[in-house]
Design goal:
The complex is a heterodimer of chains A (about 220) and B (about 250). By secondary structure, chain A is mainly α. Chain A contains 9 helices and no strands. The longest helix of chain B has 16 residues. Classes of the chains: A mainly alpha (about 220), B alpha/beta (about 250). Chain B: It holds the Pfam family ABC_tran.
């Protein structure tokens, strides 16, 4: 019977455990997002510098996170660093480090792109009106760049939330890991359990990411002009 | 006419991009209240020349004197010079994140630290003059190109400049909107504003300019009263240029 599995969802503390797992997912994602935004804005502004050395260094940093899969980064920091440097990092801390570094790299690219995509004459007419550099950033460039940043930033945030699924691989007990544990316990008794549990996990991710994605689409359209 | 001290004097102004010479020793004197049209084929250096006058381009030689004070030295405060030499560009360069009124008030309030009610009154009067008083609270995206350009002129005027530079301000406008912008500039000429106008509108130049400068390849080829330049150009290059434009 297909629906025999659904009862497991509401048995004992199963539902509560799944929601607590979701909380871990969100905790890692949100802390990493906040760190990423702050660092990303700083690095993004630094990356508009004309210095070649600065450009190359940060480009290298960004590419390292684009080229190497996040899972590999997680493994490297979780398994390699403690073994060689006598540092014991919990899986969640490793997750925060990797996600923050990755998020900051991607955010910086969004911020940098938004600033340099502003038409040159915005800078020139600011200057021609006698504005100082800081006034130009404050009243003209940053407000315009912010509008361009927010929709791609929200997209990145959704990506970061989804990518936390990888954390089960280093043993963070987030929503998927909890789901797997419940399935393992009940699989023999209820062969359809994985359908229900993964279906529920599917639903949870959807409930969180869909509104974000819609919100960013809406902003994009609103600010298209 | 003569005998007046020029408000702006340019001596041997030279501008290079790497090895390429863009301005090859430009000399010019502008008397207060004069309107000077700068004509010439594309790439002759006329826009670059204007941009040098308010420090948007670095120059490699020569001098610019504003009221007999040199602008070409390290201590020049370009932010102050720019409040005396206003400039309007070809691109509709209003700040899209601010309303028309906020665009106009930004520099008077933040740079010049003037009193808000005084500046607002001036802004409204100027908007009235260009026929856009009812657009004060609109955003630039709600305006046509010609309207934006008129606002950009008002924005530059509101800092009370002594000289105005116009860099092909009608070049990217729909032909139907050229007139409304040129009318505003003609009005300024009548009021005695000192202006340097880079333009491709020959009839307009003929109408408003006291003097015409014809530039080619970074040099001034001819400098003459407007009437004389258009009826009887002296240099062959200027004759050629005017012929091409005459259909």
């Amino acid at each position: 019977m297909l629906n025999s599995g659904i009862s497991v969802l509401f048995e004992g503390v199963n539902l509560e455990r799944l929601l607590l797992g979701l909380l871990v997912t969100l905790r890692v994602a949100l802390i990493a997002v906040v760190i990423s935004i702050v660092m990303g804005i700083l690095i993004g502004i630094i990356r508009t510098s004309k210095s070649k050395l600065v450009q190359i260094l940060f480009k290298l940093y960004l590419e390292l996170f684009r080229i190497i899969p996040i899972l590999v980064w997680l493994f490297v920091i979780y398994y390699v660093i403690p073994a060689n440097f006598d540092l014991n990092l919990s899986a969640e801390v490793v997750a925060l480090i990797v996600f923050s570094l990755w998020g900051a790299a991607e955010m910086s690219d969004i911020v940098r792109g938004a600033i340099i995509s502003l038409p040159k004459h915005q800078t020139e007419s600011s200057k021609a009106l006698g504005l100082s550099v800081s006034q130009m950033y404050r009243y003209v460039l940053i407000p315009q760049a912010t509008k361009r940043c927010i929709p791609p930033m929200i997209n990145l945030i959704t990506r970061m939330i989804k990518t936390t699924a990888l954390l089960t691989m280093i043993g963070v007990v987030e929503v998927i890991k909890v789901g797997q544990q419940i399935i393992e316990v009940n699989n023999l008794e209820h062969p359809t359990i994985s359908f229900w549990i993964y279906g529920f996990v599917f639903f949870l991710y959807f409930v969180i990411c869909f509104p974000l994605s819609r919100f960013s689409r809406k902003l994009e359209r609103k600010w298209a002009t | 006419m003569s005998g007046q001290i020029p408000i702006l004097k340019v001596k041997g102004l030279t501008k290079k991009y790497g090895e390429k010479i863009v301005l090859n020793g430009i000399d010019l004197e502008v008397e207060k209240g004069k309107v000077i049209a700068i004509l010439g084929p594309s790439g002759c250096g006329k826009s670059t020349f204007l941009r040098c006058l308010n420090g948007l381009e670095e120059v490699q030689g020569g001098d610019i004197l504003l009221d007999n004070e040199s602008l070409i030295n390290k201590s020049t405060k370009w932010r102050e010079v720019r409040q005396r030499i206003g400039m309007v560009f070809q691109s509709y360069d209003l700040f899209p994140n601010l309303t028309v009124m906020e665009n106009i008030l930004l520099s008077p309030l933040k740079v010049q630290k003037r009193n808000r009610s005084e500046v607002e009154a001036q802004a409204l009067e100027l908007l009235e003059r260009v026929g856009l008083a009812d657009r004060a609270n609109d955003y630039p995206r709600q305006l046509s190109g010609g309207q934006k350009q008129r606002i950009a002129i008002v924005r530059a005027l509101c800092i009370n400049p002594e000289i105005m530079l116009f860099d092909e301000v009608t070049a990217s406008l729909d032909p139907e909107m050229v007139r409304e912008v040129l009318d505003v500039i003609a009005q300024l000429a009548e009021q005695g504003m000192t202006m340097l106008i880079v333009t491709h509108e020959m009839n307009f130049a003929k109408l408003v300019a006291d003097e015409v400068i014809f530039m080619d390849k970074g040099n001034i080829h001819e400098q003459a009263p407007a009437e004389q330049f258009f009826t009887n150009p002296q240099t062959e290059r200027a004759q050629q240029f005017l012929n091409i434009l005459q259909f």
